[in-house]
Amino acid sequence: MRLYHCLLFIAFFTACGTAKKSSTPVLTPYSYTNQKNITAGKGAVVSAHPLASQAGLLVLQQGGNAVDAAIATQLALAVVYPGAGNIGGGGFLVAHLKDGRNITLDYREKAPAAGHRDMYLDAAGNASTDKSQNGHLAAGVPGTIAGLFASMPYAKLSFEKLITPAILLAEKGFVLTEREARSLNNLQEDLKKYNTQPNAFMKNTPWKAGDTLVQTDLARTLQRVKEKGAAGFYEGETAKLIVAEMQRGKGIITLEDLKKYTAQPREPHVFDYKTYTIVGMPMPSSGGLLLHQMMKMIEPYQISTMGFQSAEAVQLMVEAERRAYADRAEYMGDKDFYPVPEKALAATAYLTDRMKTFTPGKASNSNDIKPGVVPVPEHEETTHLSVIDNEGNAVAVTTTLNGGYGSRTVVGGAGFFLNNEMDDFSIKPGVPNMYGAVGGEANAIKPGKRMLSSMTPTIVLQNNKPYLVVGTPGGTTIPTSVFQTLVNIIEFNLSTIDAVNKPKFHHQWLPDRVDIENDFSSATAIALEMMGYKLYKRGAIGRTEVIKVLPNGKFEAVADKRGDDDARGW
Ligand code: GLY
């Protein structure tokens, strides 16, 4: 049976006629391993799953460009990485195109028309994060499928071709890794709690590495999208299934919400750091502006002479992170609904002024509003992919359901998880969301508004040519992980592998503490404690995927060691 399936996959791609002979394997859903880094000349893809990276690579080999590969990789992730890859969530795309243009696409979820600022408050005014995080009411109107179609004008191949690997993976199945089996086992209780219909992820006996996950309902949904385009999701059968699911669980997304959803091209957030130009996502992601603020706050200091992760360097970066995240809580949100003072927050004079209170060797503190130490979330799930081709296109996409498996509600009969992105709004001023982030009016819920994100898909240019394609999952730790990865490469001259895999740290203003990974230097940790910082040891921060363009023009693609992440190229 397995051999038959392998042959079927190979036959499909051979039948497509254009797959070039290469030592790189074709889609191998029943036998695959991780590849953590590769150097390639024609194109490269890095994503959270080997089969998704393979799907992107196949598309490049079939004559597609980086945008084609990004679309195929996202669709494959929706099948093989259901905890964060998605069609029931949303994301952002940042691209540098071969003609020199920088573009971004916003396909973030929106609040349904029946959403309102107090929808998660009880009669006494108490906030219920249970409702904003779990089950039907936690879901925003999904944006991913609209985003993929909004990407198509920059692609070369047909959508039918780009979606086919995902349909095959859903229909014929793929084998689970150890990590995925464990993750699905941890999900079983929530699946029972938040679903009334059968779905592919529920199982009475534990999932094991090597089990095959077949997603027939999802294959049918993807087939409808293949046949009818975005209307195959936002209208007709799929839309009806989503609304029926909403009705079963007191959710509020309607047929009208779905029909009205559009992805939005946005003006990229661009700034210079030394000799580099950094292209990022504007609102409703805080990522581009936070990265801008943090990079510019450290720029006047000689950080390269302080040494990688010396206490001096970490303190400087932590204080930049603290100040940027304080602004995030107060000022940032969907600028279609709230006047975010982006220019003022990024002005050099303002950022210089912010660092006037920075005292080397002594911790600042964030306690001008009530502190609230919240536990680190168990699942900061989102996923990032970086793609590049030899035509001059580079694409960074970060996409999410918010928490791992989103709301943990699968649309009955349609086979995909709905997001729990409503929790990224500020459901009540000062009430922390699942990442411990607080907010206020700027990020309050309004019908049709997009919730503030931290996703930071980023492209660094040198002489208007791609140099780095970067991004990561990790909730509020996303901008600080991207910040550190850039500083590691640009200032500390770390190899790409070290820049990705060396321990990360994180400060987000509130709670007032520095989160550090378990393998963070204990000498630096002790020095920081002596300066007055509270440290909090935790598990992995992010899963960063980087492509670097080497001086000889080749692409060095590096997948994070922290997961099943995988780099492919040819
Ligand atoms: N849901 C995580 C983010 O958008 O920041």
TrEMBL record:
The keyword Acyltransferase applies. Its EC number is 2.3.2.2, 3.4.19.13. It holds the Pfam family G_glu_transpept. GO terms for molecular function: leukotriene C4 gamma-glutamyl transferase activity. Cleaved by autocatalysis into a large and a small subunit. The keyword tRNA-binding does not apply. This enzyme consists of two polypeptide chains, which are synthesized in precursor form from a single polypeptide. Belongs to the gamma-glutamyltransferase family. NCBIfam families: g_glut_trans. This is Glutathione hydrolase proenzyme. The gene is ggt.
